[in-house]
Design goal:
Helix content: 40-55%
Number of helices: 9
Number of strands: 5
Number of domains: 2
Largest sheet: 3 strands, parallel
GO molecular function: phosphoglycolate phosphatase activity
InterPro entries: HAD-like_hydrolase_sf, HAD-like_sf, HAD_2, HAD_sf, PGP-like_dom2
Pfam family, one: HAD_2
Order of helices and strands: HHHHHEHEHEHEEH
Strand order of the largest sheet: 3-4-5
CATH class of the largest domain: Alpha Beta
Shape: globular
CATH architecture of the largest domain: 3-Layer(aba) Sandwich
Distance between the termini: 21 Å
Protein name: Phosphoglycolate phosphatase
Strand content: 5-15%
Structural class: mainly alpha
Radius of gyration: 17 Å
CATH superfamily of the largest domain: HAD superfamily/HAD-like
Length: 216
């Protein structure tokens, strides 16, 4: 299973611009990039009071939807590179089940869940804040996924980009592959975390899964 932000597609820098545009629209000053980076990976509405102290979350959320839609329509957000889609195709062709697990809300995922999206024929299930009771780094975030598939944790590999992803997967008993492609995190950020393998770019996930399947 695969995380979305800065794993399947690179999003932090675009989201920083998007969220600052929303803040400008509701009359708020922009947040510093360092603040966005420090809170990256948290659910959006949970992070915004730290990114913009005193922000009216209802106004922010109302303005966010329109800006998000424009960024998606303009091809600025959630652009999945062809090589990442090819890697997913290789996993599916090898008989592996590919699923997504993200902390995004259902509305934030709506365009990716569309039946005509390129992910539709590649991903068998998507788990998000709308159909899971817990959020990373809580290991129970995988409960619904494991229950729906009947898989044991040790049969699953989670590919993500953050120490919180590693904690959630490792504590739940899943294998974890850390993807460093975004440059937001480095190997040392995962010190003493549950990481089975590091990859520098998402397409390397195919070989990583094979290595984990074959064992030491």
């Amino acid at each position: 299973m695969v995380d979305v932000d800065d794993t399947l597609c690179l999003t932090e820098s675009v989201c920083f611009e998007l969220e600052n545009e929303v803040l400008r629209r509701i009359g708020r000053p922009p947040m510093p990039r360092a603040v966005h980076l420090a809170t990256w990976g948290q659910p959006l509405l949970g992070a915004m009071p730290h990114r913009s102290p005193g922000v009216d979350l209802a106004r922010f959320e109302a303005a966010y939807r329109g800006v998000l839609d424009r960024y998606v329509t303009d091809g600025r957000l959630d652009v999945i590179p062809p090589e990442n889609l090819h890697a997913m195709d290789r996993l599916v062709a090898a008989g592996r089940t590919v699923m997504l697990l993200t902390s995004r809300t259902e509305s934030e995922m709506a365009h990716l869940l569309a039946p005509d999206h390129v992910l539709a024929e590649r991903v068998s299930a998507v788990f998000h804040a709308g159909n899971t009771r817990y959020r990373k780094p809580d290991p129970r975030v995988f409960d619904e996924l494991l229950a729906a598939t009947g898989l044991a944790p040790g049969q699953c590999v989670y590919v993500g980009d953050s120490p919180g992803d590693a904690v959630a997967a490792g504590t739940a008993g899943l294998h974890f592959v850390a993807c460093l492609q975004s440059g937001v995190r480095r190997r040392e950020d995962f010190e003493q975390r549950h990481v089975d393998l590091f990859i520098d770019a998402f397409p390397e996930v195919v070989d990583a899964v094979t290595r984990l399947e074959n064992g030491p």
